[in-house]
Amino acid sequence: MDPEDDEFTLDYGHGQISVEIDGWEWYDDSIPVLTGDTAALYGEVEQPLFFDASIEADSMFVQGMGIYFYASPPADRPDVMLARGRQVGTGLLSVVYCTRKRWEIDMSDQVTAKELGLNVSSGDEKDVFKWFLASFLFGKRIQQDIAVKTYKVIVEKHGRDTPRKLCNCTWQELVDMLGEGNYTRYDESTAERLLKLCEKLNDEYDGKVSNIHEASENRKDLEKRLEEFEGVGPKTVEIFMREAAKRW
Q: pTM score, two decimals?
């Protein structure tokens, strides 16, 4: 297990889940975690919208070594043991013990435009932009309820429901809005990218997402143009097109 990777896969008997431990401390290459070692993980399950679940681990205790590996910086929440496993191959643990309730995760629950009160298939420009904004927020590894709450804070509470209104925000105002939605893991970078997104949309497409479609030769070209917006990757495009394709 390479500590520089900060990530491995946990086989807990009923499936697999990604485990991430940022910036391990006390790891010594002379005493690496070996195949067959029994380990206990402490942390929490993350359930990002449209992504597979993962564990963000605070620490891992390797029984045979008698050593704890800690994430850095230390989390400000109490350690909660999720699973005790045995490494059975490079980067793979086989669970010996698991707190089952922590693993009962519904992977099928995806927020739709309709659930946000949007009718993207109608072609209404305002709804298309709001779904683009929602897709942008959902496209990050963030909890579903946090992404939805943040969208509502920006669009419903503060009324930033058009590219021009969004661009009229200062960077700090956007950071504060993201904070209101508890989108704090990515607040500063997201605020910067949102400002660049609406600036590009205003400058190059007259503030209309539908104009991106009009300027595109085909779907491949449309997706390429969408990915040219900073912070918009394949996952955001996939989420956005799931609804937009009904119209386009």
A: 0.62
